[in-house]
Give the backbone structure.
Amino acid sequence: MNRGGAMVNILTILLILSTSFGYDVGDTISEGHQNEAFDICYASELDPNGDGQFQFAEYNGDLNGGQYFVIFLEMMATW
């Protein structure tokens, strides 16, 4: 199982979120944005509910039925 590809997809989604919605470090992602779905292109077997789409709400216990997750996200860029 290669989690590296899934991490790349998650980081791509985060980059899109940060540039599209203007979130800064420490901000809370709005519930509306948590429910936005993004297709998983690689390693969809890692998707918690198996629908092939990534949503932050899937990892939020207040929205997913009580299963809480800790997510560590790291983004780097070199240019």
Summary: Residues 3-21 form the longest helix (19 residues). The two ends are 30 Å apart (CA to CA). Residues 9 and 43 are 9 Å apart (CA to CA).
